[in-house]
Specification:
- By secondary structure, this protein is α/β, with parallel strands linked by helices.
- The chain folds into two domains: 2-100 and 297-317, Rossmann fold, CATH 3.40.50; 102-289, NAD(P)-binding Rossmann-like Domain (Rossmann fold).
- Helices cover 35% and strands 14% of the residues.
- The chain has a six-stranded parallel β-sheet with strand order 7-6-8-9-10-11, sandwiched between helices. The chain has a five-stranded parallel β-sheet with strand order 2-1-3-4-5.
- Helix 1 (10-23) packs parallel to helix 11 and helix 4 packs across helix 6.
- The protein is globular.
- The two termini are 23 Å apart.
Amino acid sequence: MKIAFFDTKSYWKEFFTPVVAKFGYEITFFNERLTPATAHLAAGHDATCSFVNDEVSAEAVRTLHSLGIKLILLRCAGFDSVDLAVAKECGIPVLRVPAYSPESVAEQGAALLMAINRKTHLAYERSTKFNFNIAGLDGVALVGRTAGVIGTGKIGQCMINILKGFGMNIVAYDAFPNPNLGLEYVELDELYARSDVISIHCPLMPQTFHMLNAEAFGKMKDGVLLVNVARGGLVDSEALMDAIDAGKVRGAGMDVCEVEHDYFFEDCSEAENKDATLSRMLASDKIVISGHLAFLTEEALTAMADVSCNNAKAFLAGEELVNEVK
């Protein structure tokens, strides 16, 4: 198995190289993202391995097919970067990593929640300037308050465990409620109305795009805290900023952003014509954006490498592809 690995960063090389060697695969690391313009780099390989911000569009998939690519590996849970219909048309399975240390992602969500609530980022900024005035850095005690968790899959469940550890009451929404979790499932409108904290853990699909929009924010409590470690497109960024400015949202901790494709994972400090909405978000002291690093733990990176290689192994052996996206 020869794997063309796209959007390479130092951490990917560090964790994938030993695992790939253990499986006996050959791997070529490309710095470029997988796009229609770079798909030709996969020539001479059997599979590609891409991440969340690659663009495996219909054109890219057809190019990969013409090059003899037999398998598309996603080293992530999200699969909205791939044109699945065209991949199926071309007979190329798309295999993902549905769960890679969900605890790591949830823990980052908790870190963001604590940052926006207790204004850790502002306290740090002041202290680096020898300013220890704490006026304006007040937060709220989470114990006894209500957290609304949207999406109760593996990451959502981990987040619920953390929030329960804070002594919070939990209400949940999921399109497919899990009766075995013993949760109080409610409709979204009720979740919005009751929650002091809202944490999002659902996939990005046409049905969930901008699910948190102006209408949704209008149904929430004043002073709600928002956490998003799922997908940027779930939140309408302009509507969020309006809700922040109006005092509806007290603070937002975002590991993701709907315009991250053009910026995240790169040093864009010298970029010209920066996105106006993202600039507006970054200028707000009520928003913390961590740049899509919730996965960046030793445990998660190791799991991503191991599951990706086992996905390739199952394909080669003709076994059931349990992680195939259909």
